[in-house]
Amino acid sequence: MRLADLLTLERVQIEPTVSSKKRALETLGELLAGGADESAAGPPTHLVFDALSARERLGSTGLGHGVAIPHGRMAELDAPRVAILRVDQGVDFDALDHEPVDILIALVVPEASTGDHLELLAQLARALSRPDNIAAMRRAVDPPGLQQAATAAFHDA
């Protein structure tokens, strides 16, 4: 399973008005719950938000360098989903380096998919360990550009 295959344009957003960790997680919940058509619709937004928030309570997923990877497992899912949110002004995410976060890549997986969860997180970590991948995501001017930059980063991971 590859991250690059999971990222759809409907789950990529550049949102200039997000100014808090809670609002960022809510927006990611909306992206991960929604879909372009009825068959893509997922669990209710509040359940996705709850899964992401529960994981954050265990410890921040802010990696540093302005990047966070909120993630969680959900019984209500039948397949993994990934979403990307970029905000204009970084939000306080309790990151390891105490820097604000402006790129959030969220992942939710079915409860029983522990192996997939770990593999997808490893792919994310590899992709985000390269500063040029992060810079490309920051340079994107619209959601299609952000999706293209992220997909290229994920292909290399």
From TrEMBL:
This is PTS system nitrogen-specific IIA component, PtsN. It comes from the Bacteria. It comes from Thioalkalivibrio nitratireducens (strain DSM 14787 / UNIQEM 213 / ALEN2). One of its GO terms (molecular function) is protein kinase activator activity. Signal peptide: none annotated. InterPro entries: PTrfase/Anion_transptr, PTS_EIIA_type-2_dom, PTS_SugarTrans_NitroReg. Residues 5-153 form the PTS EIIA type-2 domain.
